[in-house]
Amino acid sequence: MPIAFEKVNFKYAPNTPFAYEALKNIDLAFEMGKVTAIIGPTGSGKSTLVQHLNALLLPSEGTVLVLDRTITNKHKPKELKSLRQRVGLVFQFPEYQLFEETILKDIMFGPLNFKVPEAQAKVLAMNALKLVGLDESFAEKSPLDISGGQKRRVAIAGILAIDPDVLVLDEPTAGLDPQGSKAMMELFLRLNKENGKTILIVTHDMEHVINYCDNVVVMKDGEVINHQRVTDYFERKTQVEDIQMNLPQLLLFKEALLDGGFEFKQPMRYLEDLAEAISKEIKR
Question: Looking at residue 41, what DSSP letter applies?
């Protein structure tokens, strides 16, 4: 079953002087089993969009289809709890998800809430802790006593412990160092390739988009202005410049070579593609 938005509008503080239209006439269907990036300038509606996926927000108008559920402004879907088990949302700010006395209890909360026996919930929590690169010594620490990057890892672990079918991540690598960021993105890619999970990632990092994602949704001023395969999107640098975001380093290097007289005909996504193209051009 799809994840789709049909003519969705959303307004914060309606019927007040502070009313703000955050989503405007959204028609969008995500490809299941793929990794999709959701990009756009700050304030473009990205976080608002993904919060509709497990009914944290209800559309002011229109319909949101999530797996086998229908979400409208009239009602939340039936059995909302089971929907949130299948669609795991990691917030942009991890503090929103951390509230227990210890990290272990925090990660166990989800499985326990879904009636998993305590012993099994502990195993799931410890496995999730290892998946995000934290060792067992963190289990009894307080979430208040760890760094911002570690809080983000714990928040992600809390969602991984419930094993959702769809993983929705809002800026999941913010606050992580480059090595930690790379490891986290590789984990999401493994979950997609090996476990068949649909991954939706809100991000400002164009390196992540080109290296790890299949599709890209581009938002601006509350609207979806583009939705296509990543390889097609980056073929035109003006599309990235139009939303005031930076080209990935690989494509910046390619553009510099083009300015210097090189000619590249094939699409490029990875460093190996560029190296092969340079080799062919030099030989030519």
Answer: S
For residue 154, with 0-12 CB atoms within 10 Å meaning exposed, 13-18 middle and 19 or more buried, which class applies?
buried
Beta carbons of 188 and 199 less than 8 angstroms apart: yes
For the chain, helix (H) and strand (E) counts, in that order, are 11, 10
Task: Read off the pTM.
Answer: 0.87
- Rounded to a whole number of angstroms, the distance between the first and last alpha carbons of the chain is 49
Residue 140 DSSP class: T
Listed by start position, the domains of the chain span: 3-247, 248-284
Per CATH, the number for 3-247 is 3.40.50.300
269 to 19, 38, 62, 248, 252: CA distances (angstroms): 42, 18, 36, 10, 12
Q: Which residue would you say has higher pLDDT here, 101 or 249? A: 101
Query: How far is Cα 211 from Cα 204, in angstroms, rounded to an integer?
Result: 13
Which of 177, 197, 168, 4 minimizes the C-alpha distance to 92? 168
Name the one residue in this structure whose structure tokens are 């092969």. Answer: 276
Q: Give the model confidence (pLDDT) of 87-143 as tens digits.
A: 999 988 888 888 899 999 999 999 999 999 999 999 999 999 999 999 999 999 999
Name the residue with tokens 């509606």: 45
Nearest to 185 by CA among 156, 218, 216: 156
Q: How many of the other CB atoms lie within 10 Å of CB of 223? A: 15
Rounded distance, CA 62 to CA 6, Å?
6
